[in-house]
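Q: Given only this backbone (387 positions), what sequence would you predict?
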């Protein structure tokens, strides 16, 4: 194989390089948002198309068996930095200058996001932007609210228009508004959806099964078609490619762009899009988020469960709950309770636990739904229920 070494890059820049330079595929070594003891690799085909689970396992078997071709290849170093920065800067045109606080969590985003945001006209305040794999301040995982406390404080201290945070390899984004409030990623997708639908009336928007009912309702209210799909960035990217969908997102913070782009997730591009939306608005970003109906919702809850058991548990649980409630089973069990609330339980794609989320109009309704799901899980002594 002829190999191109693109250096220290975000995962989305690896995707960009593969698609933009029309390479045969690519791989990025990254622990993403996970704890220090984890590492891994994200791989794509030509065009930055994701590998399927079956292809990943087939590759593993080939490596374990040593069933590899041999030959003479070449190694060349080439940086995609300028191509990437110029391409993304050409996609967004903020109407006015905003002050933005960037918290890279000491991940690789700090090497790219501040420069890109300055290129599109932002006044940037850097926070934890030095790349340091020991992550001395907090893990780069904006889905966990404790990891954006520094960002919330700095946004208010600096009088910024917004704050942005990224995970370790920058394929996920978190947003803090001008009032220092953190917003879940499905509500960020609402703002991105409104922006897209203004240009593409009737377009579809895909999102994962953990997403808020507010997102579904808002897409419909603005003339779009909501498409609920399986959790996992590779699942959503394949769905976008198969159905020609221009925008997608996950509660975890992955945002996917195919309008004038390559149909991949990119946290830095997502933050630039939010800057553009905020700069165009008459009022502050907080007012845009206030226009979104906020239901009561839990964050993603984790119930440790052995990898060898988690899918069997979900299969049995889904079968039982489907007999008692209307249940969406495209990925685990999204149980629709009387009154409009819902509770989800599914197996994590990457870790030995089940994930749960609940949403309703009141905290009392959430507590009642939790009792139903938790009681069903108590039959499995090896599952540790969330506190």
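A: Predicted residues:
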């Amino acid at each position: 194989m002829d190999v191109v070494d693109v250096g220290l890059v975000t995962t989305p820049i690896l995707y960009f390089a593969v698609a933009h330079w029309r390479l045969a595929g690519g791989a990025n070594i990254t622990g993403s948002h996970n704890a220090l003891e984890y590492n891994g690799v994200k791989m794509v085909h030509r065009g930055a198309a994701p590998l399927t689970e079956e292809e990943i396992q087939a590759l593993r078997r080939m490596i374990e068996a040593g069933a590899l071709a041999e030959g003479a290849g070449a190694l060349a170093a080439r940086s995609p930095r300028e191509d990437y920065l110029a391409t993304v800067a050409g996609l967004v045109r903020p109407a006015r200058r905003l002050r933005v606080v960037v918290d890279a969590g000491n991940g690789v985003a700090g090497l790219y996001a501040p420069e890109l945001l300055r290129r599109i006209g932002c006044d940037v305040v850097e926070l934890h932007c030095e790349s340091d794999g020991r992550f001395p301040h907090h893990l780069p995982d904006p889905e966990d609210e404790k990891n954006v406390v520094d960002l919330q404080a700095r946004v208010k201290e600096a009088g910024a228009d917004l704050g942005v945070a990224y995970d370790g390899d920058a394929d996920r984004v978190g947003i803090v508004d001008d009032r220092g409030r953190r917003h879940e990623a499905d509500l960020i997708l609402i703002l991105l959806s409104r922006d897209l639908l203004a240009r593409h009336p009737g377009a579809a928007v895909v999102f994962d099964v953990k997403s808020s009912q507010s997102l579904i309702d808002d897409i419909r209210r603005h003339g779009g078609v909501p498409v609920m799909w399986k959790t996992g960035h590779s699942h959503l990217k394949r769905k976008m490619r198969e159905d020609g969908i221009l925008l997608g997102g996950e509660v975890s913070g992955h945002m996917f762009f195919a309008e004038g782009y390559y149909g991949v997730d990119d946290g830095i591009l997502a933050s630039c899009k939010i800057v553009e939306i905020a700069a165009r608005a008459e009022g502050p970003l907080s007012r845009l988020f206030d226009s979104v109906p906020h239901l009561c919702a839990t964050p993603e809850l984790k119930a440790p469960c052995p990898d060898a058991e988690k899918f069997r548990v979900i299969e049995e649980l889904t079968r039982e709950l489907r007999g008692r409630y209307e249940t969406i089973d495209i990925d685990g069990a999204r149980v629709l309770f009387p009154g409009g609330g819902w509770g989800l339980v599914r197996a994590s794609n990457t870790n030995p636990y089940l994930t749960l989320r609940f949403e309703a109009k009141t905290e009392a309704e959430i507590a009642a739904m939790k009792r139903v799901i938790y009681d069903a899980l108590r039959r499995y002594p090896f599952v540790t229920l969330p506190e």
